[in-house]
Automatic annotation (TrEMBL):
The lineage of its organism: Eukaryota, Fungi, Dikarya, Basidiomycota, Ustilaginomycotina. One of its GO terms (biological process) is DNA replication initiation. GO terms for molecular function: DNA replication origin binding. InterPro entries: ORC3, ORC_WH_C. GO terms for cellular component: DNA replication preinitiation complex; nuclear origin of replication recognition complex; nuclear pre-replicative complex. Residues 581-706 form the Origin recognition complex subunit 3 winged helix C-terminal domain. This is Origin recognition complex subunit 3 winged helix C-terminal domain-containing protein.
Amino acid sequence: MNTADDFDDLSRACFTIPCGPVPTQAASSSSASASLPAGAFPCLSGYETSPLPAQLRRQAHALAAAALDAALERTLDALYAPLLAGLKTWAAPAAETFWLPGAAPLPAAALLGSARHASLPARLSTALLGKSKNNVFVELAASEYDSLHSAQSLLLRRARRDITLRRNESVAQGKRKEEGIDDLLQLGIETLFVSLPALPSHPPAALQDLLTSLASASRGSGTRVCLLFWLPSAPALSQRGSTKASGIGSLGEALPLPAAVRKLCEIQSFTLPTTSETWDSITLQLHMNKHHVPPIWLGPTLWEQIERGFHDVDGRVESVWRALQLAVLDHFSADPFSTLLCKSIPPADAFTPSFYARLRQLLLSAVESHGRVPPRPSSAVDLHPRAHFELLLTSDEHLLATMSEVAQAQRSATRTRNLGLQAIAALDSKLELGQAARPRPGQLWSALLSGSIASLISTLCSALHAAPLARLLSALDELDGLIHREHGPAWLSQEAKEWQAKLGEQKDEAMDVDGEEGRVERVHRQLVREESLSDAKKELVAWLRRSLHTLCVAPHELAFAEIFVYDDAGAIASLLEPAPRAILLAALNDPWAFLESGLSSADDAQDDEDEDRAALQRAQAVADVPDVCRAYVLYRDAGRLLNLADWYNAFAQGIEAQARQRDGAHAEVDEDETQARFAQSVSELAALGFLRRTGRKPEHVSKTVFDLPPSKVKAKAGGAAKSREASVHA
């Protein structure tokens, strides 16, 4: 199973973010509690008094997910647009100008890039296929076959699946037991794209037989076969080129294929974006795009975790966006403050006193740490500052309106931050500190979140002070042009404006001669007076240092960052890196928390959910666990081998004791029903991989899974419990 693309099925069955449908019928006591559509978030009962905030959070999440999809499209376009255009030109059938004897070579594209590039992004492979329903894209990994027969079977099955999905029609299988490439090319396919990632790791003999059979079967079949080879980047392969059937160049010789097979292909090379280029594009489109503000900001811990996973695991854009989608989902489904990011704010009576208590605590903490009161809302611009602060402490409506506008403004305050980061990049480029020290966009953003941006600013200011005058003036001109491109120096503080005016006066006094001669003379006088120039440099560098520190403020350092910054790295890690064994054991040992969480995902009405919750509480009160959990407890406490008869007797005794506790001392239990329940429980445990036959006696089975220590089970399942507690407050 490819864990980079899909969540583990076993962990998904036991652990999900509780975001299922909420009741379609609401209480009739409030006008805001009208019926909600299926799919709204669950009501956070500890902070919300009506379903309206949950509905607004659901709508805000839909907008946030759409914004992330748009950012993904922009990132893929920026990264892969040239590559996709080249691949489309390569895949297009060539015009037949004249006839050549012999079979036409197979077109092959050698994609040169990082070894972690396992495949094209799904959206790009779809774009490569075009609108034709008769084009098929099939990928074959090195670990999936070891012979020609297994490779042919995989290609045939995946081609049938792809045709079924694209044409929306089923494809009949052949009548023969042995099906080969000829059957594959008789499916009405116009162009068959065969992707072979990590080509050097494929089995040589099976790969040679596969390519030879593809080349021979495609002759006269009407199906055009295009091969995509994935090779790690190397200096010898850095130059673009092509290798045709008539000659084998350096690129063809680098392929791990026999010369006879290489002559069957016409190879053209394409360069994939590097991992650093991909990460820079992600950072630019997500965090440093002044026209598109992200729906929420990620904290330093979570962003570092995502960056580390990107560079160390697979280097895929989709993996980053999957983590972002999960972060947005968890933020809007479990955080009551996320309602303040919605376009419309519910009435004040939609929240509980606990919500306003937490909000005022956040307000006072921000005032204490930042030393200023949030500005007045647009509905009370004429209010006196003292009266404004008093209303923040006493009026829920005024507090809600103020905090909503402040949170929206703080989340969207990207202009000044981007200007500061661009100024750092521009100064570094002009000062020419060296290619190794030049920060990339991804490095700049990571430095901003980690706090190391201060050391980078200090390094730049020191280099600026030590730079020659000509380079210093060039860097300042570049900075001035950047400021004016960003709509003027409106971001400057009053102190900076006074310093800028002072520099202008000194410049006017120094330039007593017009033209280039006056500039040369002024520069000459400044060079002569080295002490005066050094003082001026110190003042200028000090102003620039203060300005850059004022501009480059990370999102999590802003006031009220708890509203629009998400930094729960543990919850995201538990989803992206699931531990199915620990979660299964935790669910079987203590099923109540998982069963209660499942009620939030039930697609039924409020009355049905309340009835199910009451039944769950009654069952929990008498310890009436599910049958599979009862069978697992006996399994857990047994030795390595289990006798089915003894296991059944213990299971039946537990059922009878439970029935007497629930219905009285004279309760009777149907033995056939008990046998059926035991058989179903054992079957479920066997399907989960807990059992296997011993081969000695038919009535004995062997254990295959042994219980983890309780500390490890709790640690592994901690992320699941934390996510459930955040959304189930009752």
